[in-house]
């Protein structure tokens, strides 16, 4: 095999979408669906935590294989992967806390350490953590591992603030929204690095979205709006699908223009 062919087999087009307003909207909606979707299967359908966790592993595995086999960013595959990782990341934390009795504080610390280690090894081997260069299989594997840990960490941190500290879902959402705003200010005003700002906000949008999901779905008696897990999940999934269709059409137009 020639050197050129070897390089082509190891490199591909960037597999991550541009970070735009639509990106963050779908990301937050995905985290909300991860929270409400897991609750729907566990409590409303009475699958239980253990069964739900096992059942979700198969679709996660299938969509991750599709994503890793793709040679470029494909909107519906990418965002399906994000939604599934959101659900499974939530379930991992729930299993640690509810089934194994690990405290939310310990869970938050453990996933923080795992995320930092992932970034450290990723940067040591690739010299970058930029999502604008997810263009090799190794970088993509690091990327999705980091995404999984951000969801698991965000779930633990969100539950810690919203439940253990008894601040309520609405207040919890406002706290995380405020932290996201502070990071954005640090980036745009005080020149915090774009890579650092992205990953910090990516972590924070998980508990923000989860808190919003709980606030919308939980009963009024529990401090929520009472829309239910099914209603909240359906509404947010419809919005996600509509935005992914929009991104798919946009992607096709860009490919057609590039082929001319």
Short description:
InterPro entries: DUF347. Helix content is 79%, strand content 0%. It has 260 residues and is mainly alpha-helical.
**Content-based structural category:** mainly alpha
CA gyration radius, whole angstroms: 19 Å
How do the helices and strands follow one another from N- to C-terminus? HHHHHHHHH
What's the total count of β strands? Answer: 0
Main β sheet profile: none
Please indicate the percent range of residues in DSSP E strands (runs of 2 or more). Answer: under 5%
What is the residue-averaged pLDDT?
A: 86
End-to-end separation in angstroms reads 31 Å
Low-confidence stretches: 1-10
Describe the protein:
79% of the residues lie in helices and 0% in strands. It has 9 helices and no strands. The chain has helices at residues 3-10, 21-44, 48-69, 75-99, 104-126, 137-164, 169-188, 194-217, 228-259. Helix 4 crosses helix 6. The protein has one domain (3-259). It has 260 residues and is mainly alpha-helical.
Tag the structure with descriptive keywords.
mainly alpha, 9 helices, 260 residues
Strands, helices and their partners?
Elements: H1 3-10, H2 21-44, H3 48-69, H4 75-99, H5 104-126, H6 137-164, H7 169-188, H8 194-217, H9 228-259
Helix pairs in contact: 2-3, 2-4, 2-8, 2-9, 3-4, 4-6, 5-6, 6-7, 6-8, 7-8, 8-9
């Amino acid at each position: 095999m020639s050197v050129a062919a070897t390089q082509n087999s190891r490199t591909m087009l960037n597999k991550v979408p541009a970070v735009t307003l639509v990106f963050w909207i779908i990301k937050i909606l995905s985290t909300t669906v991860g929270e409400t979707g897991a609750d729907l299967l566990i409590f409303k359908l009475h699958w239980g935590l253990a069964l739900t966790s096992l059942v979700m592993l198969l679709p996660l595995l299938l969509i991750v294989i599709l994503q890793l086999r793709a040679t470029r960013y494909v909107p519906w595959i990418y965002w399906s992967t994000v939604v599934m990782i959101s659900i499974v990341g939530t379930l991992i934390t729930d299993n640690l806390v509810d089934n194994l009795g690990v405290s939310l504080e310990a869970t938050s610390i453990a996933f923080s350490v795992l995320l930092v280690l992932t970034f450290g090894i990723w940067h040591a081997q690739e010299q970058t953590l930029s999502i604008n260069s997810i263009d090799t299989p190794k970088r993509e594997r690091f990327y999705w591992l980091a995404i999984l840990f951000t969801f698991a960490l965000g779930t633990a941190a969100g539950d810690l603030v919203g439940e253990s500290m008894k601040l309520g879902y609405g207040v919890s959402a406002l706290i995380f929204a405020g932290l996201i705003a502070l990071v954005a200010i640090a980036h745009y005003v005080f020149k915090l690095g774009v890579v650092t700002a992205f990953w910090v906000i990516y972590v924070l949008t998980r508990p923000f979205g989860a808190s919003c999901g709980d606030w919308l779905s939980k009963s009024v008696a529990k401090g929520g709006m009472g829309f239910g897990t099914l209603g909240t999940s359906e509404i947010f999934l419809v919005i996600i699908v509509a935005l992914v269709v929009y991104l798919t059409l946009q992607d096709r137009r860009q490919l057609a223009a590039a082929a001319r």
